[in-house]
Design goal:
Pfam families: DUF4112. This is DUF4112 domain-containing protein. Keywords: Membrane, Transmembrane, Transmembrane helix. 84% of the residues lie in helices and 0% in strands. Helix 2 runs antiparallel to helix 4. It is elongated, with a radius of gyration of 17 Å. The chain is mainly α and 157 residues long. The termini are far apart.
């Protein structure tokens, strides 16, 4: 007979919301929709960020883990930052970044009480918070740079 923890774990893994996260990760990283969508300047990165919101929601409200949520937000911010690197270099790098797969692995590690993943994330909470702030600043800088670049191109047209 399964313990209550095993039963709850099975319910979570079979839930519609968890399966949705898995599907998003598969489409965005396995089928490389993330870098393909990222080819659409500005809008592609916005779509990618919107598709990452369920991961944040799930980690914060279903698994109730702030350290996990910080790790997921860092993966998302890194993905956005890389996508903003101009001349499609960021989209090429995004092929190898696989932030959605990393996020689903982190969530699965929490669901399965993987001590390595849990310990690694909890040890890095302060670093994750600092990294989140730095990535936020870099994203703002890249967005401003993108606007200037677009204005420069329009000026020559």
């Amino acid at each position: 007979m399964k313990s209550m923890d095993d039963y709850k774990r099975q319910q979570i893994l079979q839930s519609t919301s968890y399966k949705m996260l898995e599907r998003i990760a598969i489409y965005m990283d396995t089928y490389h929709l993330d870098p393909i969508i990222g080819l659409i300047p500005g809008i592609g990165d916005l779509i990618s960020a919107i598709l990452a919101i369920p991961f944040i929601y799930y980690s914060l409200f279903t698994l109730k883990s702030i350290p996990l949520t910080l790790a997921i937000i860092n993966n998302i911010l890194l993905d956005i930052f890389l996508g903003l690197i101009p001349m499609w270099i960021g989209d090429f790098i995004d092929i190898f970044n696989l932030s959605f797969k990393r996020n689903i692995q982190l969530i699965l590690g929490y669901i399965n009480d993987d001590p390595i993943i849990i310990r690694r994330i909890r040890k890095k909470v302060i670093l994750l918070f600092i990294t989140m702030i730095i990535l936020g600043i870099l994203i703002i800088f890249m967005l401003r740079l993108t606007v200037v670049f677009i204005q420069w191109i329009i000026k020559f047209l």
